[in-house]
Specification:
The protein is mainly beta and 380 residues long. It has 3 helices and 21 strands.
């Protein structure tokens, strides 16, 4: 999300200077490489959620239906404990996120939504789940318009980002949670067509949320980003490729575009639109589409309000499970900066579906689900 002029910035990361090598010391000052540095940054995300439907006992009684990162209800949850390590040189840098908590598990477990909206998780990839991202970046000094990245990358698709701290709201939208991918293993090549204004990105991935490809054709991505001034950003994203295991014929494609605009130093607006489809072995293509709009009102340097409204259409239940339905959400987030690096978010959200049996209650099912969550975010 684009920041407003009044928005607070995170505290600087701790820095460890690495002694210069013999080659660095012998270089002429005009040729000398910028001092190498390793930076460390930590982040903690803990939340306590309440589902007012009181879904019942057992596993379903501890889960919000049709939710992802804020899945667990009526308990305290360790969402994410993260250590970020970054090493920077003149033309190259390396970034590593070490992740622990529910966030790490959910990013690598195959998820299949049941008709009730509760997820059924597969086995996690224990070898890689704690690596949130691992990216090697190269920008040639003689060609600074070019950018090359390789590794485990967050997806280029979508308005929102994977972690709550990087978004206006605590919970992620349905568009982000079920409309597109979260991360990839692959390569990104970017080029600045007009410096600081217009850029083009191309991507070659192993697939959606997988370390190793499951077939013999890669996934292709594209991004066009236009920033004509500091107040307005427009991004178009596309991703396409076969995602079914051992099947190179049926392709999955997603088109997504988002806009962010700073109306004044205290008020910003952002919107997101997506349309996806996947070819099927038999029968018509699966399609899903949706839109959302959100506001951020920074009432003071330590407090902001952020309402968000969205709808998500899933005609065959491909993305959400449970058959033909339209899913709508209404969210209001209150954020308060308690002290430097420590933020508390109180969020109220109503999920509604055109299916009268989409959400579990203590006595049966319902077409709606009211929830509240208190998120506590600490960054060092």
């Amino acid at each position: 999300m684009q920041k407003t002029a009044n928005e607070r910035t995170p505290p600087p990361a701790a820095t460890l200077l690495v002694p210069a090598t013999e080659a660095d010391r012998s270089a002429q000052p005009s040729e000398q490489t910028i001092s190498s540095a390793i930076t460390f940054q930590g982040h903690l995300d803990i939340y306590a959620g309440v589902n007012f439907n009181n879904p019942g006992t057992g596993l379903s009684g501890m889960q919000n239906n049709l939710r992802y990162y804020d899945l667990y209800a009526n308990q305290v949850s360790l969402q994410l404990a993260e250590l970020t390590i970054k090493h920077v040189r003149k033309e190259t840098s390396f970034l590593l996120d070490l992740d622990f908590g529910n966030f790490a598990d959910m990013n690598v477990q195959p998820i299949q939504l049941t008709p009730s909206g509760g997820p059924a998780f597969g086995a996690a990839n224990e070898l890689t789940k704690h690596i949130g991202q691992a990216i090697l970046t190269y920008t040639p000094a003689k060609a600074p318009r070019w950018l090359f990245e390789i590794g485990k990358l967050p997806t280029h698709v979508g308005l929102e980002l994977m972690k709550s701290k990087d978004n206006w709201n605590y919970s992620r939208s349905t568009l982000f949670s079920f409309g597109g991918p979260f991360w990839h293993t692959g390569v990104h090549v970017g080029y600045s067509l007009i410096p600081n204004q217009l850029s083009l990105g191309t991507y070659l991935y192993n697939g959606w949320g997988t370390v190793n490809d499951t077939n013999f054709v890669p996934t292709y991505g594209l991004q066009l980003k236009w920033v004509p001034n500091e107040r307005f950003t427009w991004i178009y994203n596309a991703i396409t490729g076969p995602e079914q295991p051992s099947n190179n014929q049926q392709w999955k494609t997603l088109h997504e575009t988002n806009l962010s605009y700073t109306i004044n130093p205290t008020l910003s607006v952002a919107s997101d639109f997506l349309y996806g489809f996947e070819q099927q072995v038999s029968g018509p293509d699966a399609i899903w589409y949706g839109a959302q709009v959100g506001l951020k009102w920074q009432t003071s340097p330590t407090f902001y309000l952020s309402p968000r409204v969205e709808f998500f259409r899933d005609p065959v239940g491909y993305a959400l499970g449970g058959g033909n339905q339209t899913h709508s959400t209404y969210t209001l987030t209150n954020s308060y900066l308690v002290s430097e690096g420590f933020e508390v978010r109180l969020e109220f959200r109503m999920d509604q579906s055109t299916s009268p049996t989409r959400f579990i209650t203590r006595t049966g099912t319902s077409s709606s689900q009211p929830t509240a969550v208190l998120g506590m975010l600490y960054t060092m």
